[in-house]
TrEMBL record:
UniProtKB keywords: GTP-binding, Magnesium, Metal-binding, Nucleotide-binding
Binding residue positions for Mg(2+): S52, T69
Any one Gene Ontology BP term: vesicle-mediated transport
Signal sequence bounds: none
Taxonomic source organism: Allacma fusca
Name of the protein in question: Uncharacterized protein
Keyword Manganese set for record: no
Highest classification ranks of the organism: Eukaryota, Metazoa, Ecdysozoa, Arthropoda, Hexapoda
GO molecular function: GTP binding; GTPase activity; metal ion binding
UniProt xrefs under InterPro entries: Small_GTP-bd, Small_GTPase_ARF, Small_GTPase_ARF/SAR
């Protein structure tokens, strides 16, 4: 992430709330029936994909050491005139059935993939295929972050895209973005793309 972008993010950071607790329904009630000024964004993906690392890199630009998320982490920040409500949900297998309790009123899904974990790409595809057909996400924009690109063994994003079947997904706005949550590379491009989609529906 460039310094400028980080500075902008930090200068407009309005409220930051961190929650890491047991399962809860992630209801955000103030979208119903009116033009959203806040955008609910879910950060999903398998355990160890780098979701929490990405969340805190984005919001604070700090490299944090994470522990596996039990439940969720929540952060909000305002970028330009748009407030992002970011829900980072634990990705361990036992928690995945609970993901859909968070889907209501979601405008975007940031789906994080560990680009070095080739063995689990079929499991990644299975989860992506499941959530993308969920009625509560029918209007959501999907940003796939091919994370951990700082690692030499990381798979090329175009190959990840192919293995996840992304080119054949026509039902949603969807884009794959290579990134490293560890050093921030690619995060700006990804967030700007989501921002452009939100701006387009204003
Ligand atoms: N090299 C490298 N390591 C990363 C990157 N992103 C995350 N990691 C590491 O991957 C591990 C898992 O990161 P988390 O952010 O906790 O993963 P998570 O997706 O939140 O996992 P759950 O909470 O269990 O669902 C940690 O050791 C991170 O330091 C990255 O871009 N590059
Ligand atoms: Mg986590």
């Amino acid at each position: 992430m460039t310094d400028t972008f980080t500075n902008v993010l930090q200068s407009v950071l309005s409220v930051s709330i961190t929650v890491n607790q047991q399962e809860s329904t992630a209801e955000v009630s103030n979208f119903v029936g009116k033009k959203p000024l806040e955008h609910k964004v879910l950060i999903l993906g398998l355990d160890n994909a780098g979701k929490s690392t990405l969340l805190y890199k984005l919001v604070t630009d700090d490299g944090v050491s994470t522990v596996p998320t039990i439940g969720y982490n929540f952060e909000e920040f305002t970028y330009k005139s748009i407030k992002f409500l970011l829900w980072d949900i634990g990705g361990q297998e036992a928690m995945r059935p609970s993901w859909e309790t968070y889907f209501d009123n979601t405008q975007a899904v940031i789906f994080v993939v560990d680009s070095t974990d080739l063995k689990r790409l079929p499991a990644v595809k299975k989860e992506l295929d499941k959530i993308i057909v969920n009625d509560n996400l029918s209007e959501a924009t999907f940003l796939i972050f091919a994370n951990k690109q700082d690692q030499v063994e990381a798979l090329d994003p175009s190959e990840i895209s192919k293995r996840l079947g992304i080119p054949s997904i026509t039902s949603h706005h969807i884009r794959i973005q290579p990134c490293s949550a560890a050093n921030g590379g690619g995060l700006e491009e990804g967030m700007n793309w989501i921002f452009s989609k939100f701006s387009a529906v204003k």
